[in-house]
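Q: I'm writing a short methods note and want an example of a predicted protein-small molecule complex. Could you take the sequence and the SMILES for flavin-adenine dinucleotide and return the bound structure as tokens? Please keep the output block clean; save any remarks for afterwards.
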Amino acid sequence: MHVRSNSAVEHAAPLAARLRGDLIAPDDPGYDEARRVWNRMIDKRPAAIARCADAEDVAAAVRHAAARGLPLAVRGGGHNVAGTAVVDDGLVVDLSAMRGVHIDASGRTVHVEGGATWADVDRVTAPLGRATPGGVVSETGVAGLALSGGVSHQRRRDGMTVDNLVSADVVLADGRRVRASAEEHPDLHWALRGGGGNFGVVTSFELRLHQLGPQVFTLNVAYPLEAAARVLRDWRDAVADAPDELSTAGLIWSLPVVEELPAGLRGLPYVGLSGMWAGDPAEGERATRGLRELTAPLIDMSATIDYLDFQRSLDPFFGAGPRRYWKALYLDGFPGAAIDATVERSARRPSNDTLVIVRHCGGAISRVGAAETAFGDRSSEWMLSVDSTWHDPIDDAVNIAYTREFWNAALPWSDGKTYFNFPGLFEEGDAAVRDSYGANHARLEEIKAAYDPDNRFRLNQNIRAVAAQRGGRP
Ligand SMILES: Cc1cc2nc3c(=O)[nH]c(=O)nc-3n(C[C@H](O)[C@H](O)[C@H](O)COP(=O)(O)OP(=O)(O)OC[C@H]3O[C@@H](n4cnc5c(N)ncnc54)[C@H](O)[C@@H]3O)c2cc1C
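A: Understood, no commentary inside the block.
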């Protein structure tokens, strides 16, 4: 135990005495740093932050919050745009010091502690030519991403991260520790694969590994914005029957303001295609050639590179600092009218830094049945995400309104299923959660009743316990 100040001892002495890690209180020097999350719009002031060193610490913190009726937030990588990793006047169970990663003796899976980032995982697995489907920005946390989906560069070949969750070590709402897998607590294992942080704190994930790299072919081509409607149509048609190795996205964004680019291109809005071939790089180069010649590109940065480098390549564009409001929606298809609306709305982004991206899903993702995991329906092949990004608080309202209007305008092409890892500020509430889980929602309510009847884990796409089941002990 390392107590940071007298105040921490006075206000949370029983917990501080139990922890092997740190208890950080408001008047401790590290408090402001510890309460900060990736989205700088979020400015919450927890009563204390328990920076846990191990699963026992996590259990002690969860019990402490329950005994005192303190609101509870759980922090993995702190990357959730809605800022659910922190809470005003409550206790943060912070796993950011629990980042161990090791490959299983079998070589088929990797064990990842609950506060690890994707950089921590890739560092261990990529040099061996292995990967589990994870985030495309290395500083994103494994935990939040892995519990609500997980859309990677290898998604069409290997499925989502939830599809690769073999087992999880979990601290439940009453502080008990269990393992969830196909054999142990299978209902919890099912719920964790898409149900988010609703059911407990995962202290360790076991994720399936796949052959990948060390080198991969990466698609990264920018075309003039004026060609956006045509490029997106041609891309849609070209990838409709693409092999599973190919996962791509169509996007509208602005080229970075960096010296490596010719002056005329810096900051220029463009339509782009990005993605990766999860297989032989030479084959990937051949398979994507047509996508790089749809019209004269502004710049084509497609190349065969180390997977590890690719996984870090977006980091400079997604640093903590700006203000963010993101929303995502699965589209039933990507018809011409949806493309035109996407292009038209993207052209009037209030901020040049805002990214509008349509990910091609399908492949292995769609071959998993809706009832097989809590994630639910996977029939949609297209996910639209509006990643609004700006710098000045004075622009908050206009950027949030823009994102919401865009999202609403896309609803006619969707059955309303949202992607919970890009959640805005979770303001849609229960109805959106219910709609997105569809037929799985009722089962999730029952499992919630069994594992977290008092809804201690509620800073998420919240599922409420079915009243009749309350108190049932799993
Ligand atoms: C720059 C950036 C890039 C991204 N790229 C991708 C991507 O490529 N693919 C993709 O699918 N998503 C991506 N995301 C979205 C990402 O999946 C979510 O933001 C996710 O919530 C991040 O997880 P985290 O652990 O960092 O989040 P945190 O903010 O720490 O936690 C979010 C929530 O997850 C739950 N949680 C966290 N840790 C635990 C735990 N140990 N046990 C139980 N519950 C826990 C809690 O409910 C918590 O409120 C990206 C996000 C950002 C900001």
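A: Remarks, as requested: Residues 38, 74-81, 84-85, 95, 114, 135-137, 140-141, 143-145, 147, 149-151, 196-197, 201-202, 318, 421-422, 459-460 surround flavin-adenine dinucleotide (CB under 6 Å). Residues 1-9, 468-472 have pLDDT under 50 and may be disordered.
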